[in-house]
Amino acid sequence: KRIEGDLKPGQDVVVIEDLLSTAHSAASTADALRSEGKANVADIVSVFSYEFASAAERAREHKLKLHPLATITMLVNVALSGMHITADQAKEIDAFVKDPERWSAGK
Fold first, then answer.
1. So what's the pLDDT on residue 60?
2. Which helix (DSSP H) or strand (DSSP E) does residue 77 occupy?
3. Tell me: the pLDDT tens digits for 8-26?
4. Considering the chain, what is the average pLDDT of its residues?
5. How far apart are the first and last CA of the chain?
6. What pLDDT digit, counting tens, does each position of 79-99 carry?
């Protein structure tokens, strides 16, 4: 049994994650809530998201909407405007976000 607590069938539930990368954990949690708890799950709220395309794709597959409080794009923009990173470093971060596997292989 993966679901504990007082969950009533048909209850609306929001899944909260600290960090959203691929959305695998969030989608798995939503699936468990739906199948075991018979809950209505449509939304995932995260504190931070890397904005990986795989997360958006997984969310679509599981009929979930993602709601990050902060994103890698926001973080990079703040770092750039405060001159904490260079434009080249921002481009490197963008390359990582667009294709983390290829970026990692090139390192």
1. 98
2. helix 72-81
3. 999 999 999 999 999 999 9
4. 94
5. 41
6. 999 999 999 999 999 999 999
> Which sign, positive or negative, has the C-alpha torsion 58, 60, 62, 67?
positive
Nearest to 51 by CA among 75, 83, 85: 75
Distance CA 75, CA 58 (A): 23
Question: Residue 16: beta bridge partners?
Answer: 45
Query: How many Cβ atoms are within 10 Å of 9's Cβ, its own excluded?
Result: 8
User: Does the pLDDT at position 61 exceed 80?
Assistant: yes
DSSP state of 22: S
Sheet holding 40-49, edge to edge: 12-20, 40-49, 65-71
Closest of 14, 21, 16 to residue 72, by C-alpha:
21
* Phi, psi values for residue 2, rounded to 5°: -100, -15
